[in-house]
Design goal:
homodimer; 445 residues; MgtE N-terminal fold; CBS-domain; Tetracycline Repressor, domain 2; three-stranded mixed beta sheet; 19 helices; 6% strand
Amino acid sequence: MSDDITQRIEQLIRSEDALDADLYAEVSEDLEPDQVALLLESLPREARLECWAQVPNEQRVDVLVEMRAEARASLLREFDSKSLDQLISDLDAETLIELAESLPGDVVDIALARMDERQRAHYERSAQYDEDAIGRYVDHDLLILPQNSRVRDAERLLRREVPEFTDHLWLVDRTGRFAGAVPVIRLFGQPDHLPLVELRDDEFESLPATRSLREATEAFEHAEVAALPVVDDSGLLLGRMTTRLAVELLHEHYDAQLMASAGLDEEEDLFAPVMRSSRRRATWLGINLLTAFLASWAIGLFEGTLQQVVALAVLMPVVASMGGIAGSQTLTLIIRGLALGQITTANVMPLLRKELSVGGLNGVLWALVIGIVAGYWFSSPMIGVVIALAIVVNIAVAALSGVLVPVLLQKLKIDPALSGSVILTTVTDVVGFVVFLGLGSLFLL
Amino acid sequence: MSDDITQRIEQLIRSEDALDADLYAEVSEDLEPDQVALLLESLPREARLECWAQVPNEQRVDVLVEMRAEARASLLREFDSKSLDQLISDLDAETLIELAESLPGDVVDIALARMDERQRAHYERSAQYDEDAIGRYVDHDLLILPQNSRVRDAERLLRREVPEFTDHLWLVDRTGRFAGAVPVIRLFGQPDHLPLVELRDDEFESLPATRSLREATEAFEHAEVAALPVVDDSGLLLGRMTTRLAVELLHEHYDAQLMASAGLDEEEDLFAPVMRSSRRRATWLGINLLTAFLASWAIGLFEGTLQQVVALAVLMPVVASMGGIAGSQTLTLIIRGLALGQITTANVMPLLRKELSVGGLNGVLWALVIGIVAGYWFSSPMIGVVIALAIVVNIAVAALSGVLVPVLLQKLKIDPALSGSVILTTVTDVVGFVVFLGLGSLFLL
């Protein structure tokens, strides 16, 4: 977005309560649907509705498709049946797939009933695949030819309107199965009557429709093409995945990971209603409360010691924090490695050795520093010794769990990015407190 | 990667000390350079060197380019001057740009001296741009024609070998300035003598070479093309950015963000030497130690209270943890919003109101739960009241800082993903301890 547009959008957002309609009209002319979607997401709910009222009818469907699900639903809920009717009057299969989850079931049925037969067939095929399968998101802007076509047929086809991202023509057999791709560029200078199969790119791959979004995206790191065909079990050509879809899915994937690490949903609306937002976050807080009580329980085992040596209570956060930070460094490296495919069961052992050595070195280094500071602070060398030992143990345990927790979660098919850090912190907190207060009970009473 | 290859790679990694050369030879035939790079990164350093010895000479440069910088450097360090000489005997500008940071300066000079004049000019132009500018990473596989060319010139050009991702021909004026793009597909069925300018796509954009990688990637979310031209200040065509580069840069961007959140570097080698790895992580641990001591100091203010009411020491982690978790939820939502451009100074106020309301609701809810549990646990209703009040205050402060900390960091041009969470935890820890122990001193002594 140009700075100028950004500034004018800021002005719009600032006008919050009473939307400046003239300003919107002026700005919106230069905006793509995804920019309008972002603008709407940036507005508190009332202002969002006002702004939405300004979006021209013909742009509305495109804007809704670009919005995150929750913000989109906030608009769709306000539709009366007439505007809903207008909205769904002319949807294609891909658009309906995107919007279906935000629409009432009967509206989806009406939209389907109004589609032409081909689009309906597309919809039904795509809807079979679940949310993590690429088959669900294909588009159908394909340039297809029967496999026995010739160069002249291809040239005729290319003179018509050609969909974006068309760098290959795709061949299909009589039953609609994908039968190879011909690079458009190879057509130049070829005799009219040459069969297209002779120009076929033999290395050209197709994507199974059941492939996960993540893996489908990876295919684009090798394939040097602008779009890949997506086929079902029997090889039937269902549609295509473009590089733009790959870029979009990548954004969503990473976005979801980031949000999941704080127990949030990628589709969450920035201005979700307070009640709904509170309820959702309460779950995550509740899970974390359990782990916090676990840590408290561990401390509670040593009430007597704490009463006599209050310095231990003062220093507890240092032990817990050093373990938590050291552990999260290892955890992050391992989660990344698992995601990239750098880490398999085969190299866990050498990795564990390395992380334990790194933890050992840093443990000893910081144990010395912390031991000396604590010893001086409380004028008690023995407190220094106790915290130093606790730090060494806790950082070593942190390294160990930083490697093992995500590897085990992955084995159990639980996303380590989601729950790895809660589990790790629980381990380092409990171990840290027990070791520190336990050693304190042994040496300081 | 097919499962079969993955399995055989696992076998290779498992063979750790003595690499199975036959197995490698068999596997590697099916591997792309980036897969070999990943395999090498997955191996402990000794096994990595053995495996590297098996990589055929003609694949080596491509593999090195695909590797993360630190792992790559671990291989390059072992090169004797003869193999280094062989490696750099035939580099193009893009490859040398990628490898330059891992090579000794004099080796780069030799490589430059051996390049042909055109490649050297490309290198020198790209090297002017810094690491975050797209100008540095362009490739030079362009199909260019003078702007007064005709359809027949284009067709002649297209009959030769055409670089991947060519969906447009680019026109340049006499001085080499970008003068528009012609979609290859529009050429079909056009008369030979038609000037290409008449087929030009008038909406076609070019990217300024100084544009940041992140913004350059965004351009591909709107442009429906497989490659975009990159131009310097004066409009001179420097090279191109393909969708594949966009996908690669996106991966690296998010990867870097993830690693930065734990104080790590994206280029970090999974099997970095223990000393180096320890030294790097020590910095982050040191920063966090300071914040932990700050929390300890806050607790230390209440030593007298803790001695008399040891239950407070036991419950401290609950107050700190609830604040930390609630804060990190808000923080994550805001960091995501800032990255997407959803949040500007214009909507910070309504956002703050919303997050404070959510925090207020959850604060009250969990304050009740925790208050009751704590009251029963220590058979003291007053302890329940004290912790309940502390939880309400700390969750509200968490919501406030969760919004303001990242927004301020962004204003100061500090990446909130890097330091946001350290600052936030410090705030919630210190505030939590002071409020909890302060209230304890007031009501329980």
